[in-house]
Design a protein that fits this description.
3 helices; 3 strands; three-stranded antiparallel sheet
Length: 150
């Protein structure tokens, strides 16, 4: 003869499995979202570091726009993924002449002392996302850095 407590156990037998089936997908989506957001933050910091490296190279005498662009691309391809193509990475170099200096027309070879050199790096998040989807689809990660020419 069954006791009252064993009847309750039989009635609850599948409840844990049903609860897990309801909660597990939500939990996994939450975990994957946290991982993808963390990846976005990491790549954003790497893009900012690439802009800083490019600006540091740009302020040195003898630097050219091509040298800076290549250095930024090499940095990002090594730090993030070698599968990034050069067309995935957008690099903008802008030179603001210091008061009294001639306008170098955004050419690093023509810059003078105290000119402000800004490097902006842009990278579509779709190219570095771990999880395909619409979470950050269409978003562009950008990094900016500006330094004075030495």
């Amino acid at each position: 003869m069954k006791t009252i407590s064993s009847k309750k156990k039989d009635a609850r037998r599948g409840a844990a499995m049903v609860e897990m089936a309801l909660v597990l997908p939500v939990f996994l989506m939450l975990i994957m979202g946290i991982i993808e957001f963390g990846r976005g933050m990491m790549v954003s910091n790497l893009v900012t570091n690439a802009a800083r490296e490019g600006a540091r190279m740009a302020v040195l005498d003898g630097s050219t726009n091509a040298d800076v662009s290549n250095a930024v691309r090499t940095f990002l391809q090594g730090a993030i993924s070698s599968s990034l193509t050069t067309s995935d990475i957008g690099i903008t170099i802008a030179v603001t002449p210091a008061p009294g200096n001639p306008d170098p027309a955004n050419v690093l070879a023509n810059t003078s002392s105290r000119d402000l050199i800004s490097v902006q790096v842009a990278l579509p998040f779709n190219k570095v996302a771990l999880i395909p989807g619409k979470y950050l689809a269409g978003k562009t990660l950008t990094g900016n850095s500006a330094m004075r020419h030495e």
